[in-house]
Design goal:
Layout lengths: L3 H43 L3 E3 L7 H16 L2 H4 L11 H4 L2 H6 L3 E6 L2 E6 L2 H9 L25 H11 L5 H22 L8 H18 L4 H8 L13 H10 L1 H6 L2 H6 L3 H30 L11 H10 L11 H14 L2 H16 L1 H15 L9 H9 L2 H12 L5 E5 L7 E5 L2 E5 L4 E5 H4 L10 H8 L5 H4 L8 H4 L11 H6 L27 H18 E5 L6 H19 L4 E3 L3 E3 L5 E5 L3
Parallel strand pairs: 1-2, 3-7
Antiparallel strand pairs: 2-3, 4-7, 5-6, 8-11, 9-10
Helix pairs in contact: 8-9, 8-10, 8-26, 9-10, 9-17, 11-14, 14-15, 14-16, 15-16, 17-20, 17-26, 18-26, 19-26
The structure holds protoporphyrin IX containing FE.
């Protein structure tokens, strides 16, 4: 029997807990109401249209609660939520495209919540101001997830990120681009052999990621070889003594678990009994070990001046190690060990993931658009003749390829698959108010305001990127896409909207229709095409990425074509029906099956096959 006094104490404890919860909730409610009123007042001074949101998009509570709250909110009648709920669905920003802006009839507006103010924009003029006015900062804390090994160029702001850019920018020279082109041709030949294996489509993304990582490692760190790539693509990775994971297994495993590694304290991860967390921890520590070995070996080679690699004299790793070894005016190293390792990790991540995702999107889009693929191949024949890929070069071929159908396909894919659908900027907290000009009117923004440049909406803005459905279907000589356009799961209709011809000068319509050899190329207005961001925090690897993808697309498609695998059906009508069904399935993977985590990627496998060209 329990003592009466114990029961009394328990009941008192329960009462205290209840009161604490009630008072806590009341205080939280009061704080939220006061904060919201304060932020509404601030929003009024800005003078732009504003929407009230019940949650702070960027706060921890919403990030955790959304998995429960969102399904409930989505179950409500749409008219109650349609103007504000999409603004809280970070992972659906790409899918929603221009719709939220269309509904509010504003290309720039403010979302007000108890947590603060967020400016949403897809207005090219505002984009340009946010990118190019150096007074706007980057909310580095939002990207600090990338600082798991040490501070990085992306997860910092101000003088610190400027220092990292200054040290690494000289690497992205014409000399490097020449090497990128040659290495990418070589890597694509190895990739093609892997893609010709039966059922390779199940591993399309993994194969692309491994190819891109190997290319980056060879060029940037003089690490890994073509032989390593052959093994990696055969899933027979080389695992050195003392390790349990290969380099790519460690890096890709870590990227899949980056959130866990960021949130859970390391000591807790080491004690965890859960296998998935143990795997995440192993990836983290083994990748750390690979990077430290890379750094140690290069330090030793540099100090002995006995590096046998000709490339390592000029690679990015040298620039970082040298900055770690030299001193600044205060006698301190320009970069600490953690800063060197932080940048190595950042470049390993930023330098390959987006390229791999872009290549996958291109392959799948071309499978859905055989006519475009065919025209691109004729363009390749025109530009490259019967020459061997080993003779192709950056100086002789890159510019011509990028001004023809290959460039049009790459740019159009970048337009529709904005690898990073939202680019965050901010008015630095604690600094002065900053102004933006919208349609000729100045609007002051208070310190701490976050600005989200929505690349998905910018790239679908009806004024700057009008749809040309009739032209598209005619130029593609393909069946109309009406079967997918009415399906909401197909939002944002990237496969149907794929229209590379818009990049080839409209004035040369004939050249566009016959395809090959067009040298006039559409130049978008500033702020309307921003897949690599822009300004002082724009992508450092933009040209690296374009050269790599260009060389890979040329190599893959010069001799081979990609096809959708169709279910067998009898007769001409049956074949047509089967093909349309396969295309619908692929288009669904390129919409509903596309996810945004560290970057935008097609997460669903699409049955495709590579075959020798038939024409
Ligand atoms: C298709 C491929 C790529 C795309 C679409 C892409 C896109 C971007 C974008 C949009 C940003 C700005 C991110 C932000 O503001 O938050 C960025 C930053 C960056 N990118 Fe890329 N990128 C690609 C490939 C590469 C490659 C190949 C490298 C290096 C070899 C690279 C290195 C970087 C770095 C270092 C930054 C950070 C710049 C800074 O914060 O100052 N990227 N990239």
């Amino acid at each position: 029997m329990l003592d009466v006094s114990v029961l009394e104490s328990m009941s008192q404890l329960a009462t205290v807990c209840l009161w604490t919860t009630c008072i806590g909730s009341a205080l939280l409610g009061l704080w939220s109401a006061i904060s919201l009123l304060h932020h509404v007042r601030l929003a009024r001074t800005i003078g732009l249209p504003f929407v009230i949101l019940p949650f702070w998009l960027l706060g921890g509570p919403w990030q955790l609660a959304q998995f429960i709250v969102v399904p409930v909110l989505k179950a409500l009648p749409e008219r109650l939520t349609r103007n504000w709920l999409p603004l809280l669905l970070f992972n659906e920003f790409w899918h929603n495209g221009y719709e939220p802006f269309q509904r509010l009839q504003a290309d720039t507006f403010v979302a007000v919540s108890p947590g603060g103010l967020i400016l949403y924009t897809c207005d090219p003029d505002v984009n340009v101001q946010l990118f190019r006015d150096g007074n706007f900062g980057k909310p580095a804390e939002l990207l600090s997830i990338l600082n798991v090994f040490g501070p990085t160029i992306t997860g910092t702001d101000g003088p610190e990120s400027r220092l990292y850019r200054k040290i690494t920018a000289p690497f992205f020279s014409e000399k490097t681009l020449r090497r990128v082109f040659v290495q990418s041709v070589s890597a694509a030949k190895i990739l093609l052999a892997a893609l010709l294996r039966p059922d390779a489509h199940h591993q399309l993304r993994t194969l692309s990621a491994r190819v891109s990582l190997n290319t980056l490692s060879q060029i940037t760190f003089s690490y890994q070889t073509d032989a390593d790539l052959v093994q990696a693509l055969a899933f027979q990775d080389n695992i050195p003594d003392g390790k349990t994971l290969s380099f790519s297994q460690a890096l890709h495993g870590l990227l899949e678990n980056l959130g866990v590694i960021f949130i859970v304290p390391r000591w807790l991860l080491r004690l965890t009994p859960f296998r998935s967390l143990q795997h995440a921890t192993a990836c983290y520590s083994e990748l750390g070990s690979y990077m430290n070995q890379l750094r140690g070996a290069r330090e030793a080679a540099l100090s002995e001046k006995s590096s046998s690699s000709t490339h390592s004299d000029e690679d990015l790793l040298n620039l970082l190690i040298q900055a770690g070894a030299s001193s600044n005016d205060h006698g301190k190293p320009v970069l600490t060990n953690a800063q060197v390792i932080g940048q190595i990790f950042l470049f390993m991540f930023a330098g390959h993931e987006a390229n791999a995702n872009l290549l996958v999107s291109i392959i799948l889009l071309l499978a859905c658009h055989p006519q475009i693929q065919h025209t691109m191949q004729r363009d390749l024949d025109h530009l490259l003749g019967q020459t061997s890929p080993d003779t192709w070069s950056y100086d002789d071929h890159y510019s011509a390829l990028m001004h023809g159908t290959v460039g049009a396909v790459i740019n159009e894919t970048l337009r529709l698959f904005t690898v990073i659908p939202v680019l965050p900027k901010c008015v630095p907290p604690g600094g002065p108010w900053l102004s933006i000009t919208v349609k000729g009117q100045r609007h002051p923004l208070p310190p701490g305001t976050i600005a989200l440049v929505n690349t998905s909406a910018t790239h679908r803005h009806p004024e700057h990127w009008p749809k040309r459905p009739a032209d598209v279907d005619q130029a593609n000589n393909s069946s109309s896409w009406s079967d997918t356009r009415n399906d909401t799961r197909q939002r944002p209709h990237a496969a149907a909207d794929f229209d590379p011809w818009r990049w080839l000068d409209a004035a040369s319509a004939e050249a566009t229709q016959t395809g090959p050899g067009s040298t006039k190329f559409f130049k978008p207005r500033a702020g309307t095409f921003i897949p690599f961001s822009d300004g002082s925090r724009g992508c450092l690897g933009k040209r690296f990425a374009l050269v790599e993808v260009c060389a890979m697309v040329a190599t893959l498609f010069k001799t081979h074509s990609v096809e959708l695998v169709t279910d067998s059906k009898q007769g001409v009508d049956g074949e047509e029906e089967a093909w349309l069904e396969a295309r619908r399935r692929a288009a669904l993977a390129l919409s509903e099956g596309t996810k945004f985590d560290t970057s935008l990627r097609v997460a669903r496998a699409v049955p495709i096959r590579f075959v020798s060209r038939r024409d």
